[in-house]
C-alpha cells in the first residue's frame, strides 16, 4: 500500500451530498423535534452511557446536581451540600415540594431508593454502577436530608450526580410496575413527562407544568431515531425536524447554505488520538514516539478532514476539561527533525508501523490515511488495519494485540481529566494494555484523594505533562460538537455534551 504526504493526493474527497429542499413539513405549534442516531432501547438511567439517551432523557429526569450549557455545576434536586467527617460523609439538603410525573413525592426515601438500586443487583446489570462505587451507602437524616457515606474520596462525584446513572427515580412506581415496565415507560421529576415510546421510531414527551423549575414553554418534545446523516440533513431542510445531531464534517457546508437552518459548531468533549505501543516495535523507544508525533501535521488534517471543525490538542482532553493545561503545547510539526530523531534512534528504513482503527469511522479512515502518508515520508512502512468496533474495543486493544499505533476516541462526559486519564494510563485498566508506570499510577491515585480543586487541578496538569513527556500517544484533535438547528427554534443554548434541556426553548 502506497501513501502520499499530500493531503490532496491522499484523495480527501469528503462527500457534500446535495440534499434537495422539499416543501416544509408542518410542525405542531409548541413542538420541537430532535433527531438522534440511536434508540437506547431502555430509558432507565442505570442502563446506559449513550449520549442519545441523555439528549432525550435529560428532560425526563433530574439529578441532585445539574450542569448547565456553560458546563458549570449547580443545585437541582439538592439545594445544597457539605462535606463532613474528613470528607467521608456528604450531606445533601433536598428540594421540597417536588413531585414525580406520577404524583409521587420526591424526598429522602426516593434518593436512598435510587442509590440502593444503582449500587445493588439491578445496577450490576448496567454500565453505570462502576461510576458510583465510591459510595458505600445513603442514609436518611430526615425527610429532606440525606448523607452519602463514602468508601473512598471521589472529587468527581458531584459532577457524576448531574447525569446518567445518578438521575433520581420514583420508588413506588418501580416497585409496583417493575423494572421492565420502567425501561419502556420512564417517570422522573424533569420538565417533560413521558407520553409514548415506539422503539426504533420515536419518543414523545409533553410539558410537565408542575416542574419545580417552572413550566416549560414548549408543549412537546419529540425525539426521532435517525441513524443516517443524509436523512437527518434532508429532514432538517424539509422542516420535519428542528435539531439534527448527526452532521458529518462533509455535510456541514450543506447545512450552512440552508435557508431555514443554521449550523452550530462549538467546542465539545470528544478528543481523538493515536495511542502508541510502548512495549514492542519501534514505538518502544520514547524518542521514536516523539518523532512520530512531530511527523504528523495535525493542523493540515483538521483543515482537510474536519473542514476546520476542531482544534489541535496537547493532551487527551478538550480545553473545557478540568485539568487541561493551556500552557502545555503540542510538539510542533517538523518532518526534518523527526527524520533526524529516527536516525539517532537507529530505526531502519522501511520499519513497519501498523495503525489499528474502527473500520466504520469514515472520518478517521481519512485521518489514518493522512498519518500513514506522513509516516511513509519518514521512511517507514505504514499499514492500515480496520476492525469492527467491538473487536477493536473488546479484544485487540485490551489484550495488547495492536500494532504500533491505534485509534482512540473518547468523549469524557464529566469534562474532568480523571474520567479520561485514569482509564487510559493507570495500570490494569482496559484501555492501557502496555504500561505499568509507578510514577503515573501514583499521580493518578493522588488526585482522586483531593477535594481542593486548585490542588487537584495541579496534579491533573502534572499527569498531562508527564504523559506528553513520555509520548504515550499522538494527540490529534478535539472535535467540535456540530448540530443543525432550525431557524424557528428560539432561546436554545446548545450544550457541548448534547445533553439537551428544553425548559426555556420556544419555536415559531
Description:
Keywords: Signal. Residues 72-430 form the Solute-binding protein family domain. Belongs to the bacterial solute-binding protein 5 family. This is ABC transporter substrate-binding protein. The chain is of the alpha+beta class and 508 residues long. The chain contains 16 helices and 19 strands. It has helices at residues 51-57, 108-119, 121-124, 157-160, 171-177, 179-184, 229-238, 252-256, 286-295, 298-304, 335-344, 362-377, 389-396, 417-425, 438-447, 453-470, and strands at residues 31-36, 65-67, 73-75, 78-84, 89-94, 135-142, 145-150, 192-198, 202-207, 220-225, 243-244, 261-276, 310-312, 352-358, 381-387, 405-410, 473-486, 489-490, 506-507. Strands 1, 8, 9, 10, 11, 12, 13, 14, 15, 16 and 17 form an eleven-stranded mixed beta sheet that branches. The longest helix is centred in the C-terminal third of the chain and has 18 residues, at 453-470. The relative contact order is 0.16.
